[in-house]
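Researcher: For the annotation table, I need structure tokens for HD domain-containing protein. Please keep the output clean. Sequence:
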Amino acid sequence: MLVKDKREYLIVPFTVIALLVDLLGRVFAEKLMLPLWCDSVGTFLIAYFAGPVCGAIVGFTNNIIYGIFVEQQSVYCVTGAFIGFLAGHFAKKKVFESQFLTMTIGMGLAVISTVISVIVSITMYGGDIGNIWASQVMRFFMDAGFPKYVSFVTGQFYIEFLDKLFCVEIIYLLIKLVRFYRKKRDENLEEKKSFKNTAPFLTFIFALFFVFQPKPAFSQNFTDEYDSYVQTVFSNSEGLLSGEANDIEQTNDGKLWIGTYAGLFKYDGSKFKLMSDIHSVKSVNCLFVDEEGRLWTGTNDGGITIFINEHVMNVIDEESGLLSNSVKDIVCDTEGNYYIGTTEGISLVSLSGGVKITKKYEQIKNVTKMSADKFGNVVAVTERGELFCFKNGEICCSFLKGEEKTSFQSVDFSEDGRLFLASPDDSIFIYRLTSSGANLVRKFKIPGIEGINSFYFAENNGVFVCSDTGIAFFDESFKAKKLYTNNFSNSIDAMLIDYQGNLWFSSSRLGLLEMCKSTFIELFSEIEETAVVNSTEKWQGLLFCGTDEGLIILDEKNEKKLENKISSLLNKIRIRCLKVDSMDNLWIATTGSGIYKVRVDSSGEYEIKNFSQKTGLPGNRFRNICELKDGRIAVAGDYGVAFLRGDSVEKVFTAQDGFANEKSLCLLEYKNGCYVGSDGGGISKIENDKIVKNIGKKDGLSSNVILRMVYDSFSDGVFIVTSNGICYTSAKGEVKKLDNFPYSNNYDMICDPDGTCWILGSAGIFVAQSKDLIENLKTEYPLINAKHGFRSLLIANSWPCLENDNLYLCCDSGAVKVNMSKYDMASKSYRMILDFAEVDGIKHRINRSDVFKLSPQTQKLVLEPEILNYSLNDPYVRYFLDGNDLKPTECLLSELGKISYSNLKPKTYVFKISILDGLNGSVIESANYTIEKETEMYQKNWFKLYVILTGCLVLVWLTWFVTRVRSQKTLLKQKYELEYAKKQIKMVNETILSIAQTVDARDQNTNQHSRRVSEYSVYIAKKLGYSKEKCETLRQMALLHDIGKIAIPDAILKKPEKLTDEEYKIMKSHVIRGAEILKYLTTVDNVSVGALYHHEKYDGSGYCHGLKGEEIPLDARIIGIADAFDAMTANRIYRKQLDLDFVIKELKRNSGTQFDPKLVDILLSLIADGTIDVEKLYEKTKNNPAENI
């Protein structure tokens, strides 16, 4: 322990700090959802520093305090107190001094905590552990089939194991850090002083727990065709409840916002929604969308409400410093100053650093209109007509001078910086601002426009004018025109063009007007009339329209209706068919007045001739006119068919001539005959002025009522429109029903040479390919109707005309013009929004860029995508939940509703939604949203990995613990064995030395000879690179090299005279005797080699085996030269010690004969460098004979 405390006053603050560390650790773990408690670090620290009692107190108290805020925690104070006491108890036993003991106490505390906590949780809470990780582990093992209580114990142990190991490891590392710090600070301080210096560092460590807490476009090309735009008025009956609209704006997401006295409405293209739950926008005067997409809503009595993504971000009112809650207009200059025009003046608002009022201009009362340009200029107009100018937030003098200074009621800046002003007398002033003032560009009036309220600037530099009497438009050349808007021509206040190019106008009395460009031009709207048109024909540059009330002649170029001799003549006469022949004569079929032929004479006057029953026609009611190849005109009517040539009736065909039904509806010249379609009698063929054939149901027709026969140049056949379907006759005369065509109530067909067919009927216009029809394919044919901009109804038995791809349709409201090659005007831009998803009845925000996550308990998911479509088109929508749906679902946008999914499986899905081009199915816009239904935590792969890894960690710890214990035992055993081996070696060395000294002691002159030979041998061996072990073996071998002399009699061994041959022979036998003695000594490897071969000579003249050169073992050669060297340098009984120089000469002389030359060189080098000093060695061995045993 670091504290053996004489400063008990430190215990109190440290106990408080330890308690805070525990609580913050627990909060930290909860916030980050860690698989730990992290509430024992402080407990273990104080237990280590101050003892087990303090540890128990902190462990007990932290659970009590945490339990005040979280249920099921206070009861675990028993666990906290117990492990705190144990930690302090074992800290006294130095368990935190080593990594092994630290980990061991951690495991022990984990097991104890598990036992106590499981008992508490089962007894008190039915097994609820109170930690998501532990609970999920418990469920994991229960799902795997483990018994309930085994799963409880396992779940508890998993969190206790990691937690306790983590906490004790923190203590272990902190102790190491403290000691390192203390050692560096002053290694010589006493323990008391050390604790004093350590305290600030520990306080810093504790403070870390406080610091590191979890913290939490379109392009507009406007022409003169505005009158062809399809107009739709939205008032209270269409969902705009108030029936009026003061202003309209579009936010960046494409949604339209309408300000009314009833409040703020949102429009998504299909429905209006009143923002009734926002009390600050109950009466809206004006709207403004800034560059960041914020919607500013100015109200009549509630100030300003600022929206971001439909959420109220700020409210600015009188309490915030606004001059008045009655806001009339809002603009923003280039410096980010927002000008709020109110009844009591102008307030400047800044959003920099928070919403605040920066300036007030109280002298400018009752502001009605303001505008800002991109150069920092702002202009405001008041009810009194006063004009005020601002520059970068500061009021400045008006740039209008002299006679030009007048009162104004409206003001707007164009994109190019021109200033448009309107005066009370309805004059329009256009100024261009310069550094010196303003230059008047133009001043003019637009007839019929009174009370100008605003200007709107189109991208083609054209300008819309909104006034109290309607809407006007003028272009760059100032050519002005008032738009025809039916009855929507009162109090037009504001305008915008939406992202699809549609025009929107707001009226404070009439509501909203939408104008959508359409390829279907309703021509009669230009003349402000409606009529049922039976036939159309272009003649003399004019459009002739036959109606039930006579002839209407349109001058398309000048957009006006003409009256002339023909129209006057045919007034109130029902006209059924119009036809221009190859001689440029206009033929007119009527009901009741016969046939009229009109030609233009050389003077330009109309010549009109009437054909009737009186002139030979079969009656006066005719329906169709057809010019034949021979120049005759065929006319079909209720009572038969007549052929006219010139100004006379040439041939008449009635029932008497063979018609099954003389009421004829249509005519067609095909091949070599004229075919007549009847009202119930099928088709009659006239050839060579005779009825030669009848075709009816018996021949394959679906009905005998023939509405139309149309030649198809692509297939060279004829399509037959009957009362209940479509049939086809090939060039060979084969008739077949096209019964796979999806619609039966058809009127007519228009066939292009390229094979495209338009089928006109009561549903609208179907577009098909001739080959698909002929092959009778069962497919889905595109339908053009009101959802694609064609809002009129086609008239049965009518006769449209075609001129240069322009088809003039006969409709219930007049003639409608469409270009057959450019009819597909489907919008190529749509905004798709999916902001919210409803999960089990609760709305949640969804973001395309993020994964939308569903909880594992989710039962029902409802998606309601918003596709903002303000055009006349009704595109197809395709949606598909990848991962759930087997195939995509396609429907019209108008049919798209809420999309529901129930009981989705846990996995990742991708909701794909696309807008399709209805004609070819190509994708116009698409969006993907990733939706992930989460599995239970324990079912996820990463959690399974956590379970496996934690389990492996437990096994690793157990393996490490067991291995460590066993290794400790092994090391202890090895320690004893090593000590025993050392004793044995020492005993062997002592024995060997004793034997050597015994041998040497027999001869006074050879005293310490074996000792010196062993020293010389080791010196030489080291030069040869012998290892330490081999050197030791050689030393022992050298000590025993003369052990055989024990067997030599003293008389021979100590004889001073020269030995006799017999004696010398006995002396030489000591090598054999020595080897025999040593062969039983196994503690030294090959110990007998030194004794047996050390008298062998390099040239083979030695004894007793006569070995030579490398045959002699190296150890024996080393001992041999060392033995000879010592013999020459030592005193012998038969001579004195030889001089060293003589010895060296002898060594050199016998190199290669007696001695190994290499060993001689080594020995000489050892002598030369002083390693072998004979005198010192003799002195050393004499004084310390037992050294280095």
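Researcher: And a one-line annotation?
Model: Residues 8-211 form a domain with the Arp2/3 complex 21 kDa subunit ARPC3 fold (CATH 1.10.1760).
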